[in-house]
Design brief:
The complex is a heterodimer of chains A (about 475) and B (about 260). Chain A has about 475 residues and is of the alpha/beta class. Helix content of chain A is about 25%, strand content about 35%. Chain A has one domain (about 5-475). In chain A, strands 5, 6, 8, 10, 11, 13, 15, 16, 18, 20 and 22 form an 11-stranded mixed β-sheet that branches. The chains are: A alpha/beta (about 475), B alpha/beta (about 260).
Chain lengths: ~475, ~260
Amino acid sequence: MDATTDTIESFVNSDYKYGFVSDIQTDAFAPGLSENTVRRISEIKGEPDFLREWRLKAYRHWLTMTEPHWPNVHYPPIDYQAYIYYAAAREKKKLGSLDEVDPELRRTFEKLGISLDEQKRLSGVAVDAVLDSVSVATTFKEELARQGIIFCSFSEAVKNHPDLVRKYLGTVVPANDNFFAALNSAVFSDGSFCYIPKGVRCPMELSTYFRINTAGSGQFERTLLIADEGSQVSYLEGCTAPMRDTNQLHAAVVELIAMENASIKYSTVQNWYPGDKDGKGGIYNFVTKRGKCAGRNSKISWTQVETGSSITWKYPSVLLLGDNSTGEFYSVALTNHKQQADTGTKMVHVGKNTRSTIVSKGISAGRGQNSYRGLVKILKSATNSRNYSQCDSLLMGDRCGAHTFPYVEVRNSSSTVEHEACTSKIGEDQIFYCNQRGVSTQDAVNMIVNGYCKEVFQQLPMEFAVEAQKLLGVSLEGSVG
Amino acid sequence: MELLDIRNLSAGVEGRPILKNLSLSLNAGEVHAIMGPNGSGKSTLAGVLAGRTDYEVTGGSVLFQGADLLAMKPEDRARAGVFLAFQYPVEIPGVNSTYFLRAALNECRKARGESELAPIEFLKLVKQKSKILQLDPALLNRPVNEGFSGGEKKRNEIFQMAVLEPRLAILDETDSGLDIDALKAVAGGVNKLRRPDNAALVITHYQRLLNYIVPDFVHVLVDGQIVRSGGKELALTLEARGYDWLTEPAAAPAGAAS
């Protein structure tokens, strides 16, 4: 190993600043999963019959499935009986307003930089916060309701808008879609629900913050977002977890539906605990995210900045059913230490004149392994469709890896598919050039990495772009000395 | 005032010696040219002074304004006022040129105990300096050196120098790959930046550049040693006679002129 690699190697030591544990009383199930667990979750939440049956069907199907092993990630076998499938912060009484939220809980969210305080409306972001498995509070609900927008926890949606839930649940990611989606469908405990009515432009960013607190618990949340005809919404989710030396499981499902002329922008800043530098602990992030451009001229855009989790397995995808619909995927995935990520997207073109854009930026440092896996499928019906894909990898040091698995299927002759890929090493030359202008190595690396990710950061809402840049800086702190 | 004092400097790459007991000193207000054939160690000298880690210093010392330059990290050398105009300026995709330069300037200002320059003041400064170099302002909105032509890259180096106002500028073959107009613009920029309190070390293959940047001293580097030093007329002699006559046994190595 040469001296230059040495410098980069020593850059790989940083602390996870969200690793605190909150002392909040929780009601949690004993570890274990059975049909009874599923029934009890449904019962506690007072769910209607259709949902209980839907869960049970998912659970029975899940039993027949096997865990997928095609991703380019390695981990010891998961004991699904060892996880806690339900943990909720203990409520003393029914909450009348946000002021009555457990102060410890509020402190937790304050540490995360999430204001649950409606007075701090300057931020202009409506937040639904999910701790462990249960949604804690949703801000700005009333203001949104005036425009007919429903933004609430999934449980509330089940109670107050069962018809909408019944109509759309599982229509994008069916309960039997894959192993982890089936597991989620059986045991999901909460999540966020959002409905934007016809012609409404959501006046603020909607945001969900997920946090796993209880030791040994799995988090299985479900997000369902429907943008009705001609509506527009921008949605952001953020995720953190305490530092624990066991691996916690996060298997979420996100379903997006965009009707005619509707547009959904969904951004994720994922910073689940990545494990320590030897790869101990951290979150297994096995997530199914999919959007359906159901109507003509609809648009779904995914932007993700993934710096956390010990293992990431996710492919936010778009089904382009409506003619002239557009799907986008912008991703920055960083793996440091011993993190592994197998992530990418699927763009399935069904409607005519559909367009998709994929910009994926992988960054590998330390011993991190980063795989891009993507499918572009253009069906016979999708005449005159276009896809542009760009998959770049940036390597830091000589012990990390970058892998690319692009799949392309085109079934008609009027469509165009472009694919560009580029792998680069963060150049010692670049770092030295910055040094020679007075910029420290740490700042130089941040600058170079942020420059590399610029196309993706530009897609994020302004304030989150800043947050994402900082996050990347923190995640790479100490990686070059 | 003595700005730079190189004494018996030896350096190499992977055990292969390149610079051999090289001594040279520069005073403030002077321009020194270093000429020499390919492989004589010119770029190594520039690299060692700027702190490139590819080179290993095996002996000697370098004092910059009285401080041990070799003990300083590259960024600290830059902040202390050592500027290297790169022979091959590096591209940094996605990093805006103006942003980059402001970060650099503020680091240098911080090191001098000055406050950071606010964006508006900085833009004023940039506007003023870009005129000196006749640099297309549009370049400053592009990522650092990305997609710049060879000439634009070299101009951009001198432009950065104009903004950072170093005490010692090292120009590493800044003339290579420049057409005559670009050469004049670059040389004009360097001349305008000459002040009694700064100095320049101009490394070049050809005498051509020295028609425009007139040096006070010319040193000839051959096989890692300065074999002759003289005034600006030495450059003309080299242009006419080449380097071979200097390496014949009769030519005794001369010490550094100062």
